[in-house]
Amino acid sequence: MIENPILRGFNPDPSICRVGRDYYIATSTFEWYPGVQIHHSTDLVNWRLVSRPLNRASQLDMRGNPDSCGVWAPCLSHADGRFWLVYTDVKRFDGAFKDAHNYFVTCETIDGTWSDPTYVTSSGFDPSLFHDDDGRKWFLNMRWNHRGPGTGTNPANSLFDGIEIQEWHPAHGLIGAVATIYTGTDLGLTEAPHLFKRGGWYYLTTAEGGTGYDHAVTMARSRHICGPFETHPQKHLLTARFAPESPLQRTGHGQYVETPEGEAYHTYLCGRPLQGPRGLFCALGRETGIAACEWRQDDWLYLKGGGLVPPLSLPATALQTRDQPSHHRFTSTLPAEFQWLRTPHPERLFSLTGKSLRLTGRESLGSWFEQSLIARRQEHHSYTAATVVEALASNFQRAAGLATYYNRTKFHAALITHDPHQGRVLQLVSCLGDWPGEGLTFHGLYPIPEGPVRLEVRVTGATQQFLAGPGGEALQAVGPVLDASVISEEGGRGEHASFTGAFVGMIAHDLTGQGWTADFTEFSYTPL
Question: Does domain 326-527 have CATH number 2.60.40.1470?
Answer without folding.
Answer: no
